[in-house]
Design brief:
alpha+beta; three-stranded antiparallel beta sheet; 18% strand; globular
């Protein structure tokens, strides 16, 4: 169900040195809305920043798991998610457990999110 509810929208740069922008959409809401948007130097960095933002804001386990799965697929599970002390895996049960563990930590509200950044 998670795979069909959420979707990523990419804005990849055409200019050298420009940042990749990624937005997470939640299709389970009517109307569909953006959960969060972030950017980075390349797809992996943009997804890493998005994942960090989702965890810090205490977003849903489903949203965190979806982005974790996309990050693992992009990096072939060989890299680590910032803030987690376990390696990535494509196993959904492990991703769900990792997402739950990170979502259950109180989010840092010192950084406010004001929309597109």
């Amino acid at each position: 169900m998670t795979k069909h509810r959420f979707a990523l929208d990419w804005d990849r740069p055409t200019l050298p040195g420009a940042m990749t922008h990624v937005s997470l959409f939640d299709g389970g809401k009517d109307p569909q809305h953006i959960v969060a948007s972030r950017h980075g130097a390349g797809d992996a960095n943009a997804l890493s920043d998005l994942l960090t933002t989702l965890r810090e804001r205490g977003e849903s386990v489903g949203a965190i798991a979806y982005v974790s799965e996309e990050y693992a697929a992009l990096t072939e599970g060989s890299l680590r998610v910032p803030g987690l002390d376990v390696g990535l895996t494509a196993d959904p049960s492990v991703l769900q457990a990792a997402a739950f563990a990170t979502a259950s930590v109180a989010p840092d509200r010192s950084r406010s999110w004001g929309g597109w950044t």
